Amino acid sequence: MFFLRSSQLIQHRYVHSRGLGASPANPGAAPPRLPFSRVTQEVLAFFRTLLPGRTITDPDLLKSSNVDWLKTVEGNSEVLLRPKTTEEVSQILRHCSERNLAVCPQGGNTGLVGGSVPVFDEIILSTSLMNQVITFDNISGILTCQAGCVLENLSNYLEERDFIMPLDLGAKGSCHIGGNVSTNAGGLRLLRYGSLRGTVLGLEVVLADGRILKCLATLRKDNTGYDLKQLFIGSEGTLGVITAVSILCPRKPKAVNVAFLGCSSFQQLLETFQYCRGMLGEILSAFEFLDASCMSLLEKHLKLTNPITESPFYIVIETAGSNATHDEEKLHQFLEEVMTSSLVTDGTVATEATKIKALWSLRERVTEALTHEGYTYKYDISLPVEKIYDLVQDMRGHLGDMAKNVVGYGHVGDGNLHLNITSPSKDPALLAAIEPYVYEWTSEWKGSISAEHGLGLKKRNYIYYSKPSEAVALMGSIKAMLDPKGILNPYKTLPDNIH
Amino acid sequence: MHRSSEVKHVASYLNTRGCECFGQPCESHCPVLTDRTIHVQLKTFIKIRVKPDRTGVVTDGVKHSMNPFCEIAVEEAIKLKEKKLVKEVVAVSCGPQQVQETIRTALAMGADRGIHVEVSGKDYETLGPLQVSKIFAALAKKEQADLIILGKQAIDDDCNQTGQMIAALLDWPQGTFASEMTLEADKMKVVREVDGGLETIKIKLPAVVTADLRLNTPRYATLPNIMKAKKKKIANVKPADLGVDVCSRLEVLKVDEPPQRQAGVKVETVDDLVGKLKEAGRV
């Protein structure tokens, strides 16, 4: 059922086509607008009183909050709210709930699945002014802060105190910790410190009707009843708005080394990983890979230089520990072993900060290099580690000349592939060739169609490729219980047929 | 190209005292470098702290690494060797035990052997260009070096004096701020970066050259070379063995951080802006 409201022409820019509504051919496109209320002058007056100077209605200012980072999805919100306290968030949601107004919570707006921007005229609830650190205990390493703290700022704060955040990702300069938690962000350090599901100790959440759930415990161990925070972690703003986080932070390592290695086959890369695990053990903090296509894009668009000889695969290994001599000895033994056994054909090591940063940028800037190639189709897939590159090669064969680039890179240590396909401009025929083929392939190997990016708008209808229907039905029940009017981030995360 | 006499390079580099700034505007946490023109590359990684007694900066626990300009010098030396214009590259550093790591990096880049001039403790804290240049002059004579290449200045003290002093002590010609150097028979053609542009000079060997930013891009030390470097020799020498007195003639009176930059104030409306400007007496 597709229709356009004649009273208001609403321009939507969808992921895959200009059509309205999701269909079997376009599962990523938005469904028709649900019957939420619209923002009236009365509503605006309420917000202006509650948040003076922080109720934004200027279309120019709203523009950047209506479009996602990839510039592929655009909403039409007319109101952006910037609360400073949990109490203000509570009042906003209570008001919206009473008046059946839809809300889109927004952190740094760096998500890649269209989950952080409105689809229609949802009110944007921004955490950008909720950026205070509440407490930090330098014995336990437990940090509590508001949800709008930028990840990089938290890292800098902690580094001065000899600690670090347990997660790190390319978007660190812009993303908010609240957004990281609501999307259960993964990142480059997951291999060493685990996921947010382990490191987040407590949350303060405002529910759809404005009730404040104060579960901001700062305890390492607390087995008293059901662990509610796990519901909100990864719920992408659809079950509640996270307003504060308490998180366990590791000590800053005294010694960090980065090795950049070249391998001539994926099989050898995997064997190198085995050696890595065995010989580096507890000091291993990251194991990432990129392929030769990624390297040529980095060289072509960002003018970065390949520090070693050209190889089909490149590995970035990071070690982090408390004793430089101990770590270097282990690292050099490992490197000698993989060099002499020819698992690795070439490599270089960095211990110095600027060199480390330069080597890491070869992995971190691939996403940026891809943007220069036209339109990118991004797939974030979890697979059994040995199958990871098979998917890339299979896609290359399957797409042939239709795609300009088919590249693979990612957190191979976590079994997470970032498959990216580019074409000079959006190409529906190419998209039809990629999807659902890529999801079926993933499903066949019992993988996840979204390892860390979440479902958002773009992937909500693909959930069945990785979760059974009973599970999805239960998710729907939980959503109905916590947000009966469905005002929190509608059209996201759960599939359309759940309603 | 065949050379009848053995040509050796003596490339030197100094350990930085902890500042990683190189390339872009440096922010206020580099206290010893207030009026600087050097810039921070991406962001500073080490917070520089002034010692409570204001006699210097805290260097304990701060990672030391090869001075970026000296790295460029090492690279140039190795390039000359690869072109078979010189026979041997010797890397030298003055300082405590840690400098051996920096010498190893030079060896991994391709230098043939290293010399570690041991200076530690109080002597190291007060070690400056005059003492280092005396050490180098003595070593150059001992090793019968034909060419000395070093970085134009260290990024922790920004002195830009060592190269020039070595040349003066040895009475050798010097080509400083080199962005290009070409060996032509027994003369070195050096293109120098000066305020007015580029100056090309020809100097007779033996000579001293100091490297500037655009001379080259240092290579990464690759694994096979890192492994080989472990077997290369690093000789140990004391300044006294070279007849050099490392006593300093300078006394640091005090070291202060630059004044903190005041944070800007954000206002929500034009009225607020006018109000704040009036408050500050600007309107």
UniProtKB/TrEMBL annotation, chain A:
Keyword Oxidoreductase, does the record have it? yes
According to the UniProt entry, its GO molecular function terms are: (R)-2-hydroxyglutarate dehydrogenase activity; FAD binding; metal ion binding
Report the protein name in the record: D-2-hydroxyglutarate dehydrogenase, mitochondrial
Record domain FAD-binding PCMH-type: where:
72-252
Q: Which compartments does it reside in? A: Mitochondrion
What cofactor is this protein dependent on?
A: FAD
- Which reaction is the catalytic activity of this chain? (R)-malate + A = oxaloacetate + AH2
Give the species this sequence originates from: Sinocyclocheilus anshuiensis
* Keyword ATP-binding recorded: no
- EC code(s) of this entry: 1.1.99.39
From TrEMBL, chain B:
Note one Pfam family from the annotation: ETF
Q: Where is the Electron transfer flavoprotein alpha/beta-subunit N-terminal domain?
A: 54-246
* GO CC list: electron transfer flavoprotein complex; mitochondrial matrix
Q: Tell me which domain of life the UniProt entry assigns to the organism this sequence originates from.
A: Eukaryota
What are the recorded GO MF terms, alphabetically?
A: electron transfer activity
The record's subcellular location field reads: Mitochondrion matrix
Keyword Transport on entry: yes
The UniProt family comment states: Belongs to the ETF beta-subunit/FixA family.
Q: How does it assemble?
A: Heterodimer of an alpha and a beta subunit.
Family annotation (PANTHER family): ELECTRON TRANSFER FLAVOPROTEIN BETA-SUBUNIT, ELECTRON TRANSFER FLAVOPROTEIN SUBUNIT BETA
Protein's name in the database: Electron transfer flavoprotein subunit beta
Instruction: Tell me the organism.
Output: Sinocyclocheilus anshuiensis
